[in-house]
Amino acid sequence: MTSLDLIRELQASRPSAAEGLRSRVREIAAPAPALTRPRLARISFPRLSLVLVPAMAVLLTVSTAGVIGLAGSGGKGRAPTQQEAGRLHQNGTGKKQATPATGFGAASTQAASPSPLDLTGGGTTRSPIAPTPGRAQDVDATLTVKVADSNHVSSAAQDALDITRALGGHVESASVTTGDQAQAQLTVRIPVDKTEDAVTKLSALGAIVSQQVSIQDLQEHLDALVRRARSVRAQIVKITARLESQDLSAEQRAILELRRRNLRSELRSLRHAIRATHSTASLATVELSVVTPASLGVVPTTSRLDRSLDKALEILVWEGIVALVVLLVAAPLAALAVVVWLLRRSYRKHDDERLLATS
Amino acid sequence: MHAVSIGALPRKEALVPTFASVAESCLDDVFGYLLYLTKDRSLAEDLTGETFEAALRRWRRFDPRRGTARAWLLSIARSTALDWFRADGRRRRREARAGVAELRSPTDGELGEGFSPALEAALRSLTAAEREVLALRVVLEVEGEETARLLGITPTAVSTRLHRALAKLEERMRDHDVA
Fold it and tell me: Which residues of B118-131 are buried (b: 16+ CB within 10 A; e: fewer)?
């Protein structure tokens, strides 16, 4: 019998179920529902969980971050840090007016100088201490004002220059930086009797960040110079009168002439020093800085939504770190589980083959 | 102007077979497969019943787009039969440990109606794996790819196994003729 004959004979005698079995199977099949359920219902639970579990995990992670972000974003915004507060030198109100900050004055380096300057004041604009009229004083003022943004820096600097010229002063140096960190640095010389006026007007260019005025008295020094110059002149007059007399030896004459030369040289130096002191005392030096919040490094107040998002992002980052750690720890175990499952499946298949081969 | 009636489109549900119709149409195939596998008609009938009970429980998950209902039922039948073989093997080992003599009941029934005694004997001498591939490829005429998926082997392995089974059958028939 060939293979073809065998195949024909096998196919011709297909087994068929007995009537008893047929009835039994009909009974089993009778209550079967129609296959009309949605596709999702026919998906096995393990397969469904493979999709649902990660989706639920992601949803839970994001919603947790969002809730914590929203809960942690309450308040009126971030208060400036101590460093920023120190940098701002504000008096706590932050009002945009020419409020003198808690500045401090430098004591004079000379012995008999006026007391240190206290510029703490009330909420209204207050002039700094004015130089004493009739006395020679070295007046220096340092102002920092804050404008709204970089666009106002240039205009404020120009206004400062206009104020300086209007008061009869001149600009010694000026530097204006544009861009995000815009700021201006100006050094101007103002007639000393206009110092008070200049500080008041320059302070009004923006919100005062800091203000400092120092006065160093030069009068005594000047008086000493003048007295010394007077004395030297008197000595020169005396020596000149002596030299005009006839009864001097050549040696005496030479000594007197040398002495007169030295005195004249000293007088020149004294006059130069007096002029310089007068010049210093006649003009006050005002250093003005115009800054913006960005250049000061002040963090603008953020909205609640921004704070919530920042906080939520921070939480998400931490959740990501935790998930990574869990993954690193769980990955070898998962790999081991997969290997065990594959081995078990392979063994099962081999066992089935063995069973069928020996039955 | 009169309204034009449009015939209703066939419902999707009408295209999907019911379990009862599938059971009715595939019963002989499942029974025949299990008979070839077990060589025992009464055991094959029991396993057929268990197969359809298991299939009923899983019916909701059956997707016609992934394969035919017949292939699906045959895979359940194979699992049912293998479970029985394992349980039977454990029972024999327990009995062997207990020193109880193995009471092997004679196999019941013919494998095919109208088989010659030689063919019947030759078939019974094959292993279950050889009878299985004969049942699927020859008797039930299941496609090679589908058979390979069912058995968990490659189509090439299916062809090889079939060829060997037929060759062995042929040899046993020849030996019988000679005898």
Answer: bbbebbeebebbbb
